[in-house]
Amino acid sequence: xxxxxxxxxxVAGLAASLFTQKAGLRxxxxxxxxxxxxxxxxxxxxxxxxxxxxEQLLDNYxxxxxxxxxxxxxxxxxxxxxxxxxxxxxxxxETYRAKYVILATNLNTQLLTDLGFELIVxxxxxxxxxxxxxxIGWEGETRISNLYVAGLLAGLPSQAIIAAGxxxxxxxxxxxxxxxxxxxxxxx
Length: 188
Fold this sequence. Notes:
188 residues, seven-stranded mixed sheet, 4 helices, globular
C-alpha cells in the first residue's frame, strides 16, 4: 500500500505528487503518456520555461518528481473504489491500495462518472471539449473523503501554470491533513 495514488501524469498530477512525496507520503503516479500538453510545440506562458515544448515541460516535471522518489507507472487505471480505510485502484495488471487518491486526468473521465460525480463542460476551456466535476473548487476536495480532483477537472482555465499551481495546492492540502500541521516546504 502507498499513501497517495495520482491518476494522471500531467502538470497537475505531477505537481501534486512532488509535494506529497516530499512530505514523506509514498506516492505513485499512473500515466498513460497521453497529454494535451504534449501537442504544444512551444510553451511561452510558463514562468521559467520559455521556449520548451509541452513534452519537454512534462519530461522535466517527471524527472524532478522521480528524483525525489515518486514512482511513475505507465498503466491505465480502470477503476477507483473507496473501501473502509483506503481506495482500491485497479489497472489491467493489478490492484493497488492507497489512503489518498488524486484524479488528475482530463481524458479518462469515466473514473469520475463511475464514482457518481456529475461532469459538465469546463467553460474556462474555449474548445468546449474538456469536462469538469460539478461543484469542485480550487482545493480539489470531493464528497468522498481523501479523494481529490486536480487540473482542468477542477474547473481551471486551460493554462499549464495554473494547473500546476492547483495540483501543488492539492498536494500541500493532503500533506497538511496527513501530518496534522500546516505543511511547508522551503528549499535550502
